Amino acid sequence: MNQSYTDSVLNVLSIIKVESGVQNFANEWIQSYPIHDADDIFSLLDRLMIPYSVHPVNSRLKSIDHLAAIQVSSNSCVACHYDLDGYVEYQEGEFVAKDNPFAISDIAILIHGQPQERNEVDWLSSKLSDFKPLIPKLLLVSFIANLFALSIPFITMSVYDHVIGGDAGHEVIGISVGAILLFSMMLLLKVIRSQLLTTISNRISREVSEAVLRKILISQLSLTRMAGSATLMSRITTAESLKSVAQGPLGGALFDLPFVIIFIIAIGVLGGWLVIVPIVTLALYWVLAKRSQKQQMLLSNQVTVSGTSRFSLLYELNGKLNYLRSSAILPHWMARFEKANTLASKNSFSHLSHQAKYTSIYYAISLLSTLAVIGLGIDLIFAHVLTAGGLIATMMLISRVTSPAQMLANSYSRLHHIEQAKRQINQSINHKAEGDFSYQHQHLNNEAPSIELELVTLRFANQLKPALSSVSFKAEPGQVISITGPMASGKTSLLEVISGLIPAQNGVIKLNGINLTQYDPQLLRQWFGYYSDKPEMVPMTVQDFISDGHELEVENIEAVLEQIGALGWVNSLPDGLQTHLNQVESMSHPFSNYEAMMLTQAKLLCNHYPLILLDNPVTSKRNKQKFMQWLEKNRGQSTIIFTSHDTDLIKLSDQVVVLNGGNVSYAGPIPDGTEQEVQPEQMTQVIEG
Question: What stretch or stretches form a coiled coil here (predicted)?
Fold first, then answer.
């Protein structure tokens, strides 16, 4: 932990005068998540819901309104403030004027207010407002680029009217040099604008998708499971629709559109009433785009409904394939599918045909506007109102009007979808998550805790029978508790409720005599160890996976790996402990259960947790003896709760909880031979195997 980083954050909280509960929560957070770098500072500020912004350190910081600031250097950090009177640092409870010899790589985290008490209704608009200062700069670049583009038609007109018509060939070189310079400047500005738009749009997409992902990670597990992977992915990728609007040709057209008026005025100056042509063209684009959007919304809904119907039939086939193949109902199912498939194909064809039709219409309007300028311009030439060079220049100018308009008309539906994407993003951000706007957390030490459940009931959505019904038992500090019972009796659900992953609808869970709701979910899960029966390998290094967020010596990790017989395999990896797990999977094959269990066992043996929850920890006889030794070693040092069907492991526990259909059949010490006679028959069967 970097002490200067920690002190700076705590000083900033004192400067903005947060409530004592928030201050205490920050202290608890830092104990669980030590601050090593700027990313850790951002994580704490995000958890406290403190509004902040990040800037490079420069003289312009004093013009930005802020309550306090954290200046982050390469290896140090300081709480400070930038104001019109100069730079001041926070030392011993007060601000002291200082010189600010900053490096070019230093950043400043400006704190703009107290912790928020609720989510912003329009979070996305607030996020996009941070980029508003860049819009005038982009408009200025577009204005200058369009001025250069405006000069090129007039240069062309001078060539036709003056050089060719006036037989002034000696001026061609000078005009050519000027035209090349103007074209080069216009191209350069267009490239700069394109790069700026791409950078801004990618940053917006990244920040929005990261914010949505963080919200998903801290949402209730039960709600996340119900949403499904496809829904979660759509929430994250919604930000891509924002990026597609701001970058590429569409982004350029959006910033060129305000300056179309320049080219319309130029057409009016050259061709007089020819200016009616671009005005009528723009009106046609607008009317047709609105009409196309209404029809496209209807067709899109039809495509969605028919596609969903076809997908539901495919999902039904996947779940009922054996039944369909073994019964006479298959021909009827095929008839249903053919009908749904035909309807989906027709709707998709109609949707694509609609898009192609209007794309052709927009192109025809652009072409007809040019032909109209030619036809009407010839009449003006014969009337000696317009020169031949002026007609060519007018044709070039009309393309500068129709090009961005045609692009926007073709993309009008995408612009309309932005509002829908905005609503989806705001809904995802405003979704209730664990610990939102709550800063209560009871201190947790490294001693084994007591666990008490009183009439805990859990019912999943769309299930008539509860997964857990009035479950009650108590575990004393340092005890080993085994949970057993038939398949689907609620063992895993009980562990998830104890860990706080899934909130119970009824009942109370007490940790050290305090209701589990009085603990912050993130800090609580950092404190105890939870091991699922299906270990998941995430893209991180082997050392980080085994360390599980704790600071462990490499020698200790290697000793444990050697103890379980996995050191040779880890050393054979390209980078040893620093090898990323996803690299290992891509080199050969996905992790086998044996490899995953070895790493999970190493994590369990390397780390000490006051409370350990294990879901079916032993899956083979090879690991059984090692687990039994570990169990005896940690008895009394940690409160251990595990699920198992193995009678040898159950007999090692201090208490056993027998579940059957979500109900507790027995909870208490393992009966001896005399007591077994009076216990329920199921209890006897469980203990005797």
Answer: none
